[in-house]
Amino acid sequence: MTNDNQVSVLDDKKAEQYLTFQLADESYGVEILKVQEIRGWEPVRDIPNTPRFIKGALNLRGAIVPVVDLRERFGMPVVEYTPITVVIVLCVNNEDGAHIIGVVADTVSDVLDIKLSDIKKSPDLGAKIDTRYMRGMYVYKQRMVMLLDADKLLNPAEFEGLGKVA
Amino acid sequence: MSIDMAQFHQVFFEESFEGLDIMESGLLNLDMGDVDAEDINTIFRAAHSIKGGSGTFGFTAVSDFTHILETLLDEMRDGRRKVTQPAVNVLLGSVDCLREMLTAIQNESAVDNASVAEHKLALEIELKGGALLTSPHAEPAAIAKINTAISLNEQGWAITFCPHVDLLKTGNDPVRMFRELSTLGELEIIVDLRGLPDFYDYNPEECHLSWQLNLLGQVNIEAIEDIFDWVEGNCDMSIQSLADKAAKVAQLSAVDLVDDSVNPDEGVSPAIQLAAVETAKSTKEESKAAAKGSSSIRVDTSKIDTLINMVGELVITQSMLSLVGEHFELGKLDQLKSGLAQLERHTRELQESVMNIRMLPISFVFSRFPRLTHDLSTKLGKKIELKLVGENTEVDKTVVELISDPLVHLVRNSLDHGIEMPADRIAAGKPEMGTVTLEAYHRGGNIVIEVRDDGKGLDKHKLKTKAIEKGLIEKDAILTDKQIFELIFMPGFSTAEQVTDVSGRGVGMDVVRRNIQALGGNIELISELGKGSTIAIHLPLTLAILDGQSVAVGDETFIVPLGSIIESINVTDKMVNRVAGKGETFRLRGDYLPIVRMHEIFDVKSAKAEKLTDGLMVVVEGQGTRYGLFVDDLLGQQQVVIKSLEANYRRVEGVSGATILGDGSVALILDIPGLVRLSNQ
What we know:
The complex is a heterodimer. By secondary structure, chain A is mainly β. Chain A has a single domain, classed as CATH 2.40.50.180. Helix content of chain A is 7%, strand content 45%. Chain A has helices at 70-73, 150-153, 156-159; strands at residues 15-23, 26-31, 35-40, 54-60, 63-69, 86-94, 97-105, 107-115, 134-140, 143-148. Chain A is globular and about 45 Å long. Mean pLDDT of chain A is 82; it is low at 1-10. Chain B has five domains: 6-135, Four Helix Bundle (Hemerythrin (Met), subunit A) (Up-down Bundle), CATH 1.20.120.160; 153-251, Alpha-Beta Plaits (2-Layer Sandwich), CATH 3.30.70; 301-357; 361-540, Heat Shock Protein 90 (2-Layer Sandwich), CATH 3.30.565.10; 545-680, CATH 2.40.50.180. Chain B has 22 helices and 22 strands. Mean pLDDT of chain B is 77; it is low at 130-153, 249-293 and 497-507. Chain A binds chain B through residues 43-50, 56-59, 62-66, 99-101, 156-157, 159-160, 166, and chain B through 556-557, 601-604, 643-645, 647-650, 652-655, 658, 660, 664-668, 678.
């Protein structure tokens, strides 16, 4: 067992809850404490001159919330949005304070209790895949769930340089 | 039960700062020749409440300081002391000092004790009537000498009061006696604790304390004796004239004097002063938990009452509507309609009154300028009159807060560079007294603040030469008057021949302009050589609501601030010109205006109008430039609530914010000057 990353012996028994969702055939998870709500997809307003993965702005009871398509963010093939396409509204924290950001996912699947000791360190996947946004991996029913670090993944200050302007 | 006093600190600070402002403006308005007692009274009352408040909250340093200030004011109020310009200057200085002390306490930082002591000394010297000291930074020895001199002139009595142990049993309370004494004059009390027994031997019914009392002021010795009449048999006491005592002190060796000077505010023993510092320190630590910099606003009660009424009405309408909705049938349609109409009216009224709460009169900003003018004109040796016009014009609180610094800069500039020296003015055939006018008024949805002076104005040629020198413009550039005056707002531009500590370092006007633009406003300057300059700042009334025109570009809806729209026209092919096949312009009444195609710069794929003749040209103006914004269609005018895009995302070029339309969807508000920058890239 490694002592680095977020995994330590003391946290052995401690569990965190993760909300898992699907993108294509892959499972991803985010800390449930970051999730504000889950909404069905509805058309959003384009924000001009922003990276392609920013789908637009959503009116969340008066707050203007940007919506990020995670498929596009991860460079996965784009699909048509269906009635089961969801927007997971997350509250992320970074150096500029708290931001509310929506992410588009194919479907939400489960809420998992994950013991910190069961989280595996994400392997080094080479230069092709950036693992900075990963908290680790978890195996659930023989399937791999990628646990995302929402704070790092959804940092508006970093959007600029990513995925050239649409 | 203990009450957490820290929760009231914020209110105390606010009230105190308000009080200081009142004192300041009162002092500045004092007319030396003919002083109105009521003016002094106002100043006195303000000082008194600060003293009371600071005492309550344990800010001893502040209350001690204010006490001296108050004594001086009291004498002026009673007509025992003449109001002189030097005295007023000392008072103004101490107002500043108090403000610094309070700010330091509020920020939980250290109070500058040296400066406090200096001001205290200046006040005391003024109080003692000996205006010997010219510089507050006198040598310690000199201070000591002056101190002695003061003491010699002092009117008052030194009372040594050593009650016997059984004083309390006779029903006499020293505290009550001291209180009585303090009505006769200013009372300084030094308590001697040396007689106190150990805690275990202590009997609370016995009195082991003795006091040294200094009563300042012209007091009859009989009056003092009257007070001590009842305890005469139960104590040892002596009453000595302070003048005699001071004479004795003066005979003491010089070493003692220097010792004394370390602690200039004589009369308060070092131990007590130390205690005061301790207290201030512990209070500071206590208040650390208190919220810092929470912003608050003082609102007229009547405004709140209106608001409550409005909410009441709203609730009634709501219950009426839900009643209609419960068993709805077509016959009730009229009822529903009238209900909805009512709801609309109430909502609008509610919105207006809520906005009203955020509105403050611009005098909050203007009020600091009389002082600035007073100080600066003395420093620069100029005669300047400041006129304030339209102080009651109301603006949004945020605007009030943010406009203050740029305005200070502009007024300083006018005072320093604008107005000439008195001799020059007479030579130019102008009245000796220069005038700077600060005026605020509403125009359309904007508030306009003007800073006008009748000084020397700006020399266009000098400005141009300077700009060429600094490489800001090309040597042979042809500029209109307006463009020349614009130069002054460019970074790194200053025409002051001499850099004074007031202004002229060339970091200024560009910052001022940037600040004002950040508020969504603009600034322009008009000047005539020899006659003066006028700087006008245009600001939106509020930063929260905007009158907007919604325009359609394909499926997208954008909001154009109504204030920046000049007109909307259909262009014909004849009007359009292309420069090098790219840059498009169109002719409007003799002017050639650039065209910004919305669908191109925002990459809207669904745009319907490709040809310029198919869509509409909205002629807009932003920061002095006019251009045509090409859109598909105009939709409608409406008031929109400005929502920040940055709160959850970040700044987007060409967009100043977002809003929510009636159908719940989001629309972006266009940043007119930003769009030009975007299209130029």
